[in-house]
Amino acid sequence: MTRRTARPNAPHLSRNQASSLAPQLSAHQAATLEIYDTTLRDGAQAEDVSFSAEDKVLIAQKLDSLGVHFIEGGWPGANPKDIEFFRLIKTIPLRHAEVIAFGSTRKASNTVRKDPNLQALLGAETKTITLFGKTWSLHVTDALSISLAKNLTLIADSVAYLREKGRRVFYDAEHFFDGYKTNPEYALTTIKKAVEAGAERVILCDTNGGTMPWEIREICRVVQQECHVPLGIHAHNDCEMAVANSLVAIEMGILQVQGTINGIGERCGNANLCSIIPNLELKMKRPALNDGLGHLKEVSGFVTEIANLMPNKHQPYVGDSAFAHKGGVHIHAVLKNPATYEHIDPAQVGNRQRMLISDYGGRSGLLDKIEAYGIKLSKDHSKVDELVHTLKERESQGYQFEGAEGSFKLLMRKAMGSHRPSFQLLGFRVIVEKKQEDGTPLSEATVMVKVGEVIEHTAAVGAGPVNALDHALRKALEKFYPQLREVKLLDYKVRVLAANRGTESKVRVLIESGDHKDKWGTVGVSENIIEATWEALVDSIEYKLLAKN
Description:
The chain is an alpha/beta fold. The chain is 38% helix and 19% strand.
């Protein structure tokens, strides 16, 4: 889509120079890392996120295709949905990943054989179980209301019982770093008990997300001397340190890193695997996936879609804006050599370079965008100045084309004289009626359009004036253009411009539409929200119908 020159391995260093500056790894540090995904368990605890059992199966398949080593499927003792997931996933062949059940040590009032949580973990029939226990004395005395000695017994009994039943056990030392800072001797004793009982991994958890990277480094150093099984790191993001803390732990020789796709999770989220994995592979030169890095953006978008969340376009590596360029100086330099303003080739993580169209973009960015749409213009072509003038004039009126490339393409075609409208508006009317104070308003739209020599006059109702207008326009046009039945309105945003004029202020409407193979954005601006909406809706339909022209 853009002109690209060869990218050096590093902007200022040769490959050998860059390698000489990389940290020298011990044999232990150079061991193959384990990527442990907990999107389906910890990620599902995020506000506004709720996965069905079927959703979790679909995500697990995507994670497997990415190449993660472990997928934490959920807590089968906590809810029926997770039990159903473990039943379903047993019928799905996975190529790379092992699914793991998660749960807690036994309750103090139960024996291991009568503890419902441990029995549910065994019932999930996974080869490996991740068991968490209390490390922080505060939680032992205040949350569990038991003695410190009793907590050690719970840990040892639970791990030993699961090992006796033939399960491999990973031990999550919950609140480990807070526990260590409060009572280091007791925190270390808890994980030693788990190892003595048969745990094969000990995962150090920054459950409250309040630990700093330098603390992670020093505490990991001590734990490595005291604990003789491979260690893992599980970081939360309450101080915006989860990714940094995970990378520091790995630098110290931690083998397993836990996190979620897009960093979703309770409170401020978990360590973001979409940042951790490329940082490991591309910056630290530590292999993490089996050639799956190029699918990272795809998986990120899939999880966002299934979770019904708005994508974070500014997310590093996988966000739509991660390799987007708006300033004219930036665009001019990137077109000569992408390494001037891109720290990696975006294709390495499945992303792409984008040139944003704005009054900051200048001639270079505009020409590049025009070329992307298959139109060849020299830099001195008379239409270039006309297009730049039109673009800047529109943006001064409040139009924004960064998220509305569909409208930009139409604007460009109109300026070039190559656009033929698919229909002509003869008029529209929108009525909103409410007959009773506690009743639901009724929205009705009437549209009159002309297609060729045929005049079509239709009406439709909808859940609000925008929905009614959308329905009426489609109803008028679908008999002429059946392919419009494929189009769905995916997102609708309204931004008030110059709000000092109150209800007389201009509004900008941004619409995202899509069909079975593409998505596009369109924009409309007016003091009247219905007119702005109409403009964006018409652009959306015209964009879809470009192939007919």
